[in-house]
Write a structure and sequence with these properties.
Order of helices and strands: HHHEHEHEHEEHEHEHEHEHEHEH
Strand order of the largest sheet: 7-6-8-9-10-11
Radius of gyration: 21 Å
Shape: globular
Length: 377
């Protein structure tokens, strides 16, 4: 338990002092009892569920660089996270005065490379990647760098910030591992420390594997919980594969399976109908997602249809940040490296911070702040 709590502290989920307090019994100095994990879970989940914090991102920067043409290569616009970010990019681009052209790869390997080739052929001033794996696409990204075309991305690596070994100057994201840990701790808390867990992940992306591994590590620390299975399903094939996988898992584990975790809400779009068809009561299964806060996820949480939480990304805000980071590169200054705080959406807060519009859009004034930075009306 000590290493787990200290990992939370290092990730920023729990302060170092709080982790030390929970690790060691103050009277005996011995390792904390397993029940302390529930105390950790409650503390972390409560913090992540609070209303959006005041803006703690950049407040200064270069004015708008005029007349830019941006290519956006979207991993799959059927993915609510990718679509939400692209919508934010388009909104911010209208404000800053840029033209945007979108290339959708549909989650297919061959189309991904074709989309990048078409984007390069469009002779853009800058490239935004949305949802792809930067390292896997490195050969296709090199021509952009060789032509002096700056690149920023959203969820293109396992960590936020510049992506080492690639020309991607900034990966805009919350901390994926912190997202995963909050999701798993919420599952432990909501089941009272008795979660029987299946984790859905996409094996084709490093960020997805890292998030799934982090969730699994948390579940394994819970003595009353069981990690039943980590199920590999490509997001691009979720509509095709998740219904059958859900039926198989129900037959294999029966009532032992009471908690589904996933690296993206899209898996639950196709699992929830199967559970309903099987006659499972909503209370018999909880679903929590380590990203990204889709409209359908908000609807399930609001109606109490299996899903009880999603660690929602501020997708529209991330789109604005992508444009701001690109503007800084055009101006010859460094990226901000800003990482947004983790926010857990549950039934208790689902209508706040944009939830009435079925998305997480922090009420922190980011649009006005970016307008002021860019000196745009």
């Amino acid at each position: 338990m000590r290493s787990f709590l200290l990992a939370l502290a290092c990730a920023g989920v729990l302060s170092g002092a709080a982790a030390q307090d929970l690790v060691r019994d103050p009277a005996s100095g011995t390792a904390a009892a397993a029940t302390d994990l529930l105390a950790v879970a409650r503390r972390v989940v409560d913090a992540a569920s609070r209303p959006a914090t005041p803006w703690n991102g950049p407040r200064t920067g270069p004015r708008a660089q005029s007349g830019k043409h941006i290519a956006v290569v979207a991993e799959d616009l059927r993915n609510g996270g990718v679509l939400g970010v692209v919508d934010g990019v388009l909104e911010a681009a209208r404000v800053i005065g840029w033209h945007v052209r979108i290339f959708d790869s549909g989650g297919a390997d061959d189309l991904r490379l074709k989309a990048l080739a078409n984007a390069l052929a469009s002779q853009p001033d800058g490239l935004i990647l949305a949802g792809a794996d930067a390292r896997a696409l490195l050969p296709a990204l090199r021509p952009f760098a060789e032509n002096g075309i700056p690149i920023v991305g959203w969820h293109v690596a396992a960590q936020a910030g510049p992506v080492p070994g690639t020309p991607v100057a900034m990966n805009v994201s919350t901390d994926p591992l912190e997202v995963a840990r909050v999701t798993a701790l919420a599952a432990i808390l909501q089941t009272g420390g008795h979660a029987g867990v299946v984790i859905f992940r996409d094996p084709g992306f490093r960020i997805a594997k890292d998030k799934a591994d982090a969730m699994a590590a948390v579940i394994r620390e819970c003595s009353g919980c069981t990690l039943l299975e980590v199920r590999d399903v490509a997001i691009s094939r979720s509509k095709e594969l998740v219904p059958g996988a859900t039926r198989t898992l129900l037959a294999r584990y029966g009532p032992r399976w009471n908690c589904a975790l996933a690296i993206n809400d899209i898996y639950f779009d196709y699992a929830a109908p199967v559970l309903t068809q099987a006659g499972m009561p909503n209370a018999a299964m909880i679903m929590l997602s380590a990203g990204d806060g889709s409209e359908s996820a908000f609807l399930r949480i609001r109606t109490g249809t299996f899903q009880t939480g999603t660690v929602a990304e501020p997708l529209n805000q991330h789109g604005w940040q992508l444009i701001d980071e690109m503007n800084r590169l055009f101006a010859g200054v460094g990226v901000t490296g800003y990482v947004t705080p983790v926010h857990l959406v549950t039934a208790d807060n689902v209508t706040a911070d944009g939830g009435n519009r079925l998305l997480y859009d922090p009420d922190n004034g980011y649009r006005d702040i970016y307008r002021r930075i860019w000196q745009r009306p």
